[in-house]
Amino acid sequence: MINIAVVGACGKMGKETIKMVLADSDFKLVAAVDKYKTEDKIGDITVNENIASLVNSKTDVVVDFTNPASIYENAKFYMQNKIKAVIGTTGLLKEQIEEIEKLSLENKTGCIIAPNFSLGAILMMKFASFASKYFSNAEIIEYHHNQKHDAPSGTAIKTAQLMMENNDNFKLGNCAEKETLTGSRGGNYQENNKGNIQIHSVRMPGFVASQEVIFGSDGQTLKIHHDTINRECYMSGVALAINHVYKNNKFIYGLEKIL
User: Fold this and answer.
1) What is the pLDDT of residues 103-150, one digit of tens each?
2) Element (H or E) spanning 258, and its range?
3) Strands laid side by side in the 194-203 sheet
4) Does 144 participate in catalysis according to the annotation?
5) Tens of pLDDT along 211-244?
6) How far apart, in whole angstroms, are the C-alpha atoms of residue 85 and residue 60?
7) What is the DSSP string of 29-88?
8) Is residue 148 among the annotated active site residues?
9) Quick one: which of 159, 256, 170, 137 has its CA closest to 209?
10) Domain 2-113+231-258: CATH class, spelled out
11) Exactly one of 15, 35, 108, 148 is catalytic; which is it?
């Protein structure tokens, strides 16, 4: 039996995670935390406002679906207190992820940070990485509901990083561009002046999460598209991450590393 705490328990992903935990005979919900605390109790569990309450909760694994403003300090708290963590909150900067990895190693405490838990989305990223070897140009369009705080999405950034492993110089042959409306070409994702992948973020009611990767070369285009229809699709990936981090003390960035 794995004792699980959910942080961000009153949010949409938090509630979906709790529903999954309660339905799995191998999991036990031992704590629920939400600083906004829009509900006092979830099932038999009293919602606490402070993650400090996790220290004495007998938590084996914490699942965090909070927000970009909180996640860095939350993650450091988990590692410093040797609480294994599955983190689905996006918005972490590269240097913040590196610091969390350092704390994970120092405290010998497992941590999985996954921009996306949908197995279909993970496959979309892997397909895009493979296709990158064969195309000179690529752009990413990601679509999310209009309550998402960060842009671009963590999934789009992770996709671009995986694509750069096989091609670090897209946009070949483009003419000199001039934006008459600032931002109309999206954001140019680069690392160390390499990459050149345009990322466009759409925020609109009606979407959950979708992403399209468009590749182009002379005379052809290839589109790889994935749609998330509801948040239930993430739960098999969350369960997979919980089981993995419970048995391991390693730091992992990206669910594709454990598939």
Assistant:
1) 999 999 999 999 899 999 999 999 999 999 999 999 999 999 999 989
2) none
3) 187-191, 194-203, 137-144, 209-217, 220-228
4) yes
5) 999 999 999 999 999 999 988 999 999 999 999 9
6) 9
7) EEEEE-SS-S-SEETTEEEES-GGGGGGTT-SEEEE---TTTHHHHHHHHHHTT-EEEE-
8) yes
9) 159
10) alpha beta
11) 148
Token look-up 């391991």 returns 248
CA angle 144, 6, 238 (to 5 degrees): 60
DSSP labels, 183-205: TTT-EEEEETTEEEEEEEEEE-T
CATH superfamily of 119-228: Dihydrodipicolinate Reductase; domain 2 (3.30.360.10)
| Catalytic site residue from 84, 144, 200, 226 | 144
How far is residue 31's CA from residue 64's CA, in Å, rounded to a whole number? 12
Domain ranges in the chain are 2-113+231-258, 119-228
CA distance 70 to 20: 24
Instruction: Work out the angle at residue 28's Cα, subtended by the Cα atoms of residues 23 and 33, and round it to the nearest 5 degrees.
Output: 100
